[in-house]
Amino acid sequence: MTVAIKRRSLVAIGVLVLLGGVVALSTWYDKLRVQPRTTEKSVTVHVTNGGDRGPGTLREALFIVAGATAPTTIALDIPAIKLETALPALVNGRGIRLVGQPSKTQIDAQSLESGPVLDVSGPNTSVEGVTVTRCPAAAILVRAERFHLSGSTVDSCDVGVEVAENAGNILLESNQFTKNRIGIRFAASGHSIVASNQFSQSKDAGLWAVRGTLDSHDAVIGIHDNKFTEDTTGLIVGNIPVVVERNDFINMHESAVHIVGAGAVIRGNQINGGASMGIVAENASGAVIEDNELEGLTAYGVMVRGSSDTLVRSNRLHNCGYGLAFVLGDLHKVSTAVDNTIIAAKFNGIDVIGDSPILRGNQVLRAHAYALHVEDFQPPSGQKVRSQPFLDKNNFGDSPVDKNTAAATAPAQRSEH
After folding, report:
1. Dihedral sign from CA coordinates of 78, 80, 82, 86
2. C-alpha separations of 15 from 20, 37, 76, 186, 287 in Å
3. Stated pTM of the model
4. Strand 205-210 to 147-150 pairing
5. Distance between CA 34 and CA 46 in Å, rounded?
6. Which 8-state DSSP code applies to residue 24?
């Protein structure tokens, strides 16, 4: 034990003051030991041992870079690492770059009992070319500023990347998240970007960004150009400002996007197939759902339920079970659907139940049931909630309108049949 500590200390000193004595160590020591290489501006530490601890391991490298006074790179020169106990945090005041092999270095965390695999506690940290598998908690916990994850895979973990409330300026790009409970989870906002990632078979959600209340000073999380396939839900967002643009959702099981609070803009996404709803706004406030294309969904394309001031605009829905639905909204802050096109709904084009939205300039063509269906909501006990939508310049083509709709709609309204 005394000899090992002495050797570790010698190498650490060699990193900081460029001692040449490292090259004189024995042959076996050179092969297994983490070998630091320094310049005036940076330190590079090579990981050559895939074990949990000892010379040449990732654990040893993290201890070395924590004490370095320059920016550091940890080069994983091996194809696989098997962990048995928690690693020390990634922390260095000048920044750490953790780099796997071109074919990705795999970190197997199955033996860990709890805690994150990589605990990012220092700013200016990046991870690339790494695969983290079978972790009981988070693969990566981020609790510092300016973290970058790229070209990596997280598979079969509880949470892929957990972004703590005090973290910000996070960039997650070109990664794969597969068979996790949640791919990425944000506790707050902070000028972060999630781009060009692939999510598949997430048990709860590909991405989760929810908290209790919205802070008007929050920065926006940009979520764009990602692909979601066969997830239970693609995104669950609420009370964290997000702009969700140009993403592809394929065969979601429950919904592509579920909005549960304020601060969401869902724009320009493609949603295709699945026994699910497309976009659900539930108890949402001020949400914007616009210019999305939804095709082949079994249930509703867009469902607005218990919400206020939600704008559904210029969306294109075709061959879905139902088009739009407005259910039990805020009568004082009504939601609006304008300039949407719904083609070949298998049942109703627009359903209004216990709500009074503004419906303006929408087209419902070739609905198999009703173009517009309006009904009051009668709870098992309590007062009936009337439906009285405002209709203006909608085009329902040759599709029938429910015979109760004319009596239910507000006066002085116009629609084209």
Report:
1. positive
2. 10, 7, 18, 36, 53
3. 0.87
4. unpaired
5. 5
6. G
Q: Write out the two tokens for 141.
A: 């916990």
Three-class DSSP category at 372: strand
Closest listed residue to residue 253, CA positions, set 309, 219, 204? 204
Which two three-digit tokens encode residue 277? 């709803």
Q: Please, are residues 73 and 43 in contact by the beta-carbon 8 Å criterion? A: yes
Pairing of strands 35-38, 43-47: antiparallel
Q: Where are the alpha helices (DSSP H) in 276-410?
A: 405-408
Structure tokens given for 69: 């006074």
Closest CA to 199 of 166, 222, 233, 169: 233
- Order across the sheet with 138-142: list the strands: 118-120, 138-142, 159-163, 182-186, 205-210, 233-238, 255-259, 277-282, 300-305, 322-327, 350-353, 372-375
**Would strands 255-259 and 227-229 be described as parallel, antiparallel, or unpaired?**
unpaired
Give me the residues paired with residue 47 across strands: 76
The tokens 């999630």 sit on which residue?
A: 194
Query: Does residue 25 carry a pLDDT above 80?
Result: no
pLDDT > 70: percent of the chain = 87
Within 13 Å, how many C-alpha atoms sit on residue 314's CB side? 7
CB distance 239 to 261 below 8 Å: yes
Average of pLDDT values for 107-118?
Answer: 96
Containing H/E element for 7?
helix 2-17
Closest C-alpha to 161, from 136, 146, 182, 144: 182
Structure tokens that stand for 222 in this block: 């940009």
Residues 6+ apart with CB under 8 A from 118: 87, 90, 98, 107, 127, 132, 139, 140, 141
At 189 the pLDDT is: 81
Tokens linked to 344: 């070949």
